[in-house]
Amino acid sequence: MKAFLLNITSLVRMHHWVKNGFVFLPIFFAGKIHLMLQASMLWLFFSFCLASSAIYILNDIVDVNTDKLHPTKKLRPIASGFFGIKTAIILFVVISLLFFLSLIFLGSSGIYVLSYFVLNVLYSFYLKRISIVDVSTISAGFVLRELAGGAESDVYVSHWMIIMTFLLTVSIGFAKRRDDLVLILEKESTIKSLGGYTITFLDIAKSISFSITLISYILYSISAEVIARIGSDKLYITSLFVFLGIMRYIQITVVDKNSGSPIEVLWKDKFLQINIFFWAFTFLFIIYGKSM
Questions:
Q1: Is the whole model's pTM more than 0.85, yes or no?
Q2: Which CATH number fits domain 13-154: 3.40.710.10, 1.10.357.140, 2.30.30.30, 3.20.20.150?
Q3: Average pLDDT of the residues in 76-92
């Protein structure tokens, strides 16, 4: 039973559900964190969890043969043989049906959740084979989470949020592709690229993306529009933590060569955890401090 539970949670990527927390970002940036515990927002989060879990299963079914050759992915429940293809298909259908049922209880955010599901089905079968488009598709999924959160909570999602979310997740996506390529090169030195990627290209792409992300955040923090909305011109202080977070992630990617799973990095790296905590604390203090 223990082995079954461990493999089922691994199959649906339960530890990756934290990604769906992006639905709460519009509320956070708007300084309306009291809305996070609304039933409609929690249901939206749950709906995205169902959608993402179904997609993870589908992706593992499609990639089962290549996963068997990967140093770490070969341990996944389907690639390792713990779950057969037929069982995995049944689980995919069941979770997908639950996902579609969950849409009934959503408001205007439902179209974004459905778009996320359709986009990632296309990703599993086709888009992930096109370099640059693959990473951009994943990033679009995070933007859709934000837009859904804004629609469900009736909070405006600014162009700044969309730009920063897309750029940050693209940067992390390139870092992940770099880690995958490093693992392949270590296993088979005759392979020079991964689906149109090389180490040199990914290093350049990652550096450019992270740099624009930091610049975008700084411009956001000193924007007259944002200053007027939150009533403070001190938000630029939080840029320090964004800079430190980006530098640490680049260090993990290039020095430690361990950015293959961004979520595992987030769960395990104390530096990033402390940095994110102080960023969030400082951000909220600047917004709410004047009313204390």
A1: yes
A2: 1.10.357.140
A3: 90
